[in-house]
Write a structure and sequence with these properties.
The complex is a heterodimer.
Chain A lengths: L1 H28 L1 H4 L1 H17 L3 H31 L2 H4 L2 H23 L5 H22 L2 H16 L16 H12 L3 H86 L3 H25 L5 E4 H10 L8 E7 L5 E4 L1 H17 L7 E10 L2 E8 L6 H4 L16 H11 L3 E6 L5 E8 L1 H15 L1
Parallel strand pairs in A: 2-4
Antiparallel strand pairs in A: 1-3, 4-5, 5-7, 6-7
Helix pairs in contact in A: 1-4, 3-4, 3-9, 4-6, 4-8, 4-9, 6-7, 7-8, 7-10, 8-10, 10-11, 12-13, 13-15
Chain B lengths: L1 H20 L26 E6 L4 H11 L4 E3 L13 E6 L3 H6 L4 H17 L3 E6 L7 H12 L4 E5 L5 H11 L3 E4 L6 H6 L3
Helix pairs in contact in B: 4-5, 5-6
Classes of the chains: A alpha+beta, B alpha/beta.
């Protein structure tokens, strides 16, 4: 369910990107209409330059012209790249073919636009800027995967190349053949400002093209650094986890030894208690001795359960439930338990101590889960299931978002500021005992956890089939 | 193999597209043309109306030259037939600007009609027509040529730029109509032949 949700989100994201690309292309194509008043300003500035004899107006006109042309080119280029890269062509085609295809699309768009709106464009400078932008796109996007960074770099490239159009020096090479750049150049020549235009064009072209390459390099190196930092962080986490694991193992071994040592005084208590029982003179004393003996037996079972985690015994399901019930925190008035135990449950074959601990962990999670109701209602149902029993724990908490359900089995993941160890531990224990655990939750509708434990017959069948297979 | 064919097709398409968007490749005139550096005697009288044929900013250059030469002129880029009733000379600055035409809120067809009307009026009033062509490298040369062909056949004197894309058309017009033609090297050199038409 969660994977499906993730795929859906990806599809929506892809569609949004393609829609964005189409929108950018439409804006780019409509640019001559949308910014017509600014285009007229350029002509007015050229006229002012001729009337006043001030070539400064020509530089202002050039700046406005180049700014507008470069924005249009960048928007068309960017829109095309968004579409090309989100339609699966990126996977099917090689990098060189992608560049060819993108070039053709962008040139066609510019050409169509100039034919429809009768606004001249600059094929030579646009083509050169396009080649460099596509080259940088290949390097930059491959490394950073960021469209914003590509946009910042490409607009600089387009802006730089537009300045070559107003340089009379480059007229020979078919630069600045359009209506307005040509008027700027002719006016500049008339005002004896040919050198000024050449210098201005050069003075803008060189810094902007250098800036584009420097920015691209910085973005690439920044992205590589981030990538390295992430890698280092991941490795540090791995090392930390390994250390924690090693410490846990050491602690476990020490606790293991400690618990093992508990057996010795227990034996002494049991021996002395039996002696005391033999010598007891009244019923009261005998009753006390029996109670001590029962407690010692329970404690011994707990120690065995702890020491031999793979040891399992055949027990009655009711015994397990009673054992769990005895440990439920029933004193909290805000938590109400609804307990339903079906009669005639099958015997199960488990490690009672560890399974009880796992179930209690799940119950504790249900108790601490945030709740919008005045009191917490927890349902604890035990029912017969096919080849075993089901323990169903329900709460009326706020529930868990579907997207987060997949993470709850991860060690350290918690939505309640807890350690995040309880559920992974419970899952491990239950699976070690040939059971299963499932969780169902919806935001606002509480959570239901179902624990399945196999019956003795089920385990025996499994063992039999396993033996036959081995033979 | 399929990918190679696809790549080859894309490359061919790209090359074709590059050629197409850069079209036309105007060839420079190789014919040796003997043009006048200026007119031997004046042919035009004042007052003069300076108008545009194509609404490019070139008209402003011609107006500026006229002002510097102190020729009594009226600058009307969109002059119509009524504006030139009392004029003796009309100067057309030929240069089509798609943006200039849009700025004036007219179309190319409107501009052509206006020019045709002005030429008819000028012929009726026996006015002198001078054509100045500064452009010639623009990408919209077909429209420039169309305007030149309309005015050129009726003009009394043509001034153009040497080595421009329009040179061939100007020479052709001058030869066919026996019209004096002056080709200058730089746009600022227009002043001399322009003055020779009046003084």
């Amino acid at each position: 369910m969660t994977t499906v949700q993730v795929n859906k989100n990806e599809i929506i994201y892809q569609k949004a990107i393609i829609a964005g690309g189409i929108l950018l292309i439409i804006i780019g194509l409509m640019f001559p209409v949308l910014f017509q008043s600014h285009m007229f300003d350029i002509i007015i500035k050229i006229r002012e330059a001729i009337i006043t004899g001030d070539s400064g107006h020509l530089i202002l006109a050039s700046a406005l012209l180049n700014g507008l042309y470069s924005i249009q080119s960048t928007v068309l280029y960017f829109g095309t790249m968004l579409i090309v890269f989100q339609t699966g062509l990126r996977v099917r085609l090689k990098s060189f073919d992608m560049i060819l295809l993108s070039s053709i699309s962008i040139i066609l768009l510019h050409w169509m636009d100039s034919l429809v709106f009768e606004i001249s464009w600059e094929p030579v400078s646009t083509l050169l800027a396009l080649i460099i932008s596509l080259f940088l796109f290949d390097k930059l996007f491959g490394e950073t995967n960021s469209f914003v960074q590509v946009f910042i770099v490409s607009i600089q490239v387009f802006f730089a190349f537009q300045w070559l159009n107003i340089m009379p020096y480059f007229s020979l090479y078919r630069f600045g053949k359009g209506d307005i750049p040509y008027s700027v150049k002719i006016s500049g020549i008339y005002l004896n400002a040919e050198a000024v235009l050449n210098f201005t064009g050069f003075a803008f072209f060189v810094p902007f093209i250098i800036s584009a390459f420097v920015t691209a390099t910085l973005f690439i190196s920044y992205s590589q650094n981030i990538h390295m930092m992430k890698e280092n962080y991941r490795k540090e986490n791995e090392i930390r986890d390994m250390r924690i694991e090693a410490m846990e193992n050491r602690m476990y071994q020490e606790v293991h030894s400690l618990v093992h040592d508990l057996k010795t005084p227990l034996v002494t208590i049991r021996g002395l208690n039996s002696l005391f029982f033999c010598e007891s003179v009244n019923n009261k004393q005998k009753e006390y001795c029996e109670r001590i003996e029962n407690s010692v037996t329970k404690m011994s079972e707990m120690i065995s359960g702890f020491l031999y985690e793979y040891s399992r015994q055949k027990i009655k399901a009711e015994d397990l439930i009673n054992y769990i019930r005895a440990q439920l925190p029933l004193e909290d008035e805000k938590v109400k338990f609804s307990i339903n135990i079906e009669q005639g449950l099958r015997d199960i074959y488990i490690n009672k101590i560890r399974i009880a601990r796992a179930v209690i962990n799940v119950l504790e999670n249900a108790i601490v889960a945030p709740c919008e109701c005045p009191y917490k209602l927890i349902g604890f149902d035990v029912k017969s299931a096919d080849r075993g029993i089901n323990i169903i724990i329900r709460d009326n908490g706020v529930g868990i978002e579907e997207a987060n359900l997949i993470k709850i089995w991860d060690v350290g993941y918690s939505t309640n500021n807890t350690s995040g160890l309880g559920l992974p531990f419970a899952k491990r224990i239950i699976e070690d005992n040939a059971g299963t655990i499932d969780i169902m939750s919806q935001k606002g509708s509480g959570t239901t956890v179902t624990i399945f434990l196999p019956s003795v017959e089920c385990i025996e069948d499994f063992r039999r089939s396993d033996t036959v297979d081995n033979k | 193999m399929k990918l190679n064919i696809f790549r080859f097709a894309l490359l061919i398409l790209l090359i074709l597209l590059i050629v197409l968007v850069n079209w036309p490749f105007t060839e420079k005139s190789e014919v040796k043309v003997f043009t006048l550096p200026g007119l031997p005697r004046p042919i035009a009288k004042v007052p003069v109306v300076i108008t545009s044929a194509g609404q490019s900013t070139d008209t402003y250059i011609v107006n500026d030259i006229s002002n510097q030469l102190m020729i009594r002129s009226f600058f009307m880029p969109q002059a119509d037939d009524l504006d030139i009733e009392d004029m003796k000379t009309i100067v057309f600055t030929v240069g089509y600007s798609s943006l200039g035409v849009k700025l004036q809120g007219i179309s190319f067809e409107d501009e052509k009609k206006r020019i045709e009307k002005l030429i008819n009026m000028a012929k009726d009033n026996d006015m002198t027509i001078i054509t100045v062509v500064i452009g010639g490298e623009r990408s919209n040369d077909d429209k420039n040529e169309e305007l030149l062909r309309i005015i050129g056949a009726n003009t009394d004197y043509i001034i153009g730029l040497k080595g421009s894309g329009n040179e061939k058309i100007l020479v052709d017009l001058a030869e066919k109509g026996d019209i004096p033609l002056t080709l200058v090297s730089k746009v600022s050199d227009i002043a001399e032949p322009f003055a020779s038409a009046f003084r």
